[in-house]
Amino acid sequence: MKKKNKPLLWIASLLLLLVVAAAIYTYSMIMTPFSLSETTYIYIDSRKNYEEVVTQLRERAALPSEKIFRLLADRMNYPNKIKTGRYAISDGMTMPDVIRLLRSGNQTPTDITFNNMRTAENLAGRMSQQLMVDSLTLLNALKEPATAQKYGFKEETFLSMFIPNTYEVYWDTSIDNLMNRMKKEYDTFWNEGRKAKAEKIGLTPLEVSILASIVEEEATYADEYPVVAGLYLNRLNKGMRLEADPTVKFAVGDVTLRRILYRHLEVESPYNTYKQSGLPPGPIRIPSIRAIDGTLSPQKHNYLFMCAKDDLSGRHNFAVTHAEHARNARAYQQALNKRGIY
């Protein structure tokens, strides 16, 4: 009997060794850390697609073992507990660490930045590139009068609420949360110091944003912002129309115009400051902080007219009298003609 049992014992021992070896291998794979030279990020959108999560881990984070990850994820019930967000996977984390992180929803905030935005379409597009939010859904919210009214703005002035800067938010933040955050940042930006400066020049914060948007479109170089702001304020204080070319470009819907023609000046629009007195009803772009601060600290001078220099450098000649301005304008027109710009 003993001799007959020996083969069975050998087989049993071999099976046991195989089971132990498999267990050791599986455990070692489970505990094998991710080997990353830098932190990588996994993005999970509203579809909560498990296969996409695995693909990202495989392609971005060099998943140690996809097979064992799937087995472990099933045991930890992760496929049924997927949460949206942006998750940081760092060197040294193990697969259980990653699954616990993803399952917890403990995501890492991201920095969003927007500047040089002219329209709501620009802003919605830029935001959607950096967040989970859909650009069309955000655009509809930006253009919805009720949304603007909720935050104390009109549809024409709503873009003033968005102060160009860098903000830390969660990647899957909702549109409501995003709007609330932007309003909070707007209120923080317009502190007592800036409000006092606005009052000193006779404008409300909204009016400052509107004027700053024109100043920024007019001046290529930031060192001209205070000069241009001072000029427009001089015109406003004298009851003169602004006659700002950027507002005409906005009115006709073509910001690329190099040359403003008489037919452009005749366009009927509340934004055409050649025909309408005072400030337009809203900003013609989202002004930068530097443009707003330049407008709040205008240079004191007697200039009433400005014209681009004939060297086409983007800088301006400023004038006190119309006769001086006419000479500057003539030189600029000749420069355009010489270069065939129409």
What does this structure look like?
By secondary structure, this protein is mainly α. It has three domains: 32-108, Endolytic murein transglycosylase (Dna Ligase, domain 1, 2-Layer Sandwich), CATH 3.30.1490; 111-189, no CATH class; 203-301, no CATH class. It is 51% helix and 8% strand. It is elongated, with a radius of gyration of 31 Å. The N and C termini lie far apart (108 Å). The model has no long low-confidence stretch (mean pLDDT 92).
Briefly say what this structure is.
51% of the residues lie in helices and 8% in strands. Helix 5 packs antiparallel against helix 6 and helix 11 packs across helix 14.
Strand order of the largest sheet: 1-2
Count of all domains: 3
Oligomer: single chain
**Largest β-sheet summary:** 2 strands, antiparallel
Number of helices: 15
List keywords for this structure.
15 helices, two-stranded antiparallel ribbon, 342 residues, mainly alpha, Dna Ligase, domain 1
Write the layout of secondary structure elements.
Layout: H1 2-30, E1 40-44, H2 50-61, H3 66-75, E2 85-89, H4 95-104, E3 110-113, H5 120-130, H6 135-142, H7 145-150, E4 166-169, H8 175-189, H9 192-200, H10 205-218, H11 225-237, H12 245-252, H13 262-265, H14 289-296, E5 305-308, E6 316-319, H15 322-338
Antiparallel strand pairs: 1-2, 3-4, 5-6
Helix pairs in contact: 5-6, 10-11, 10-14, 11-14
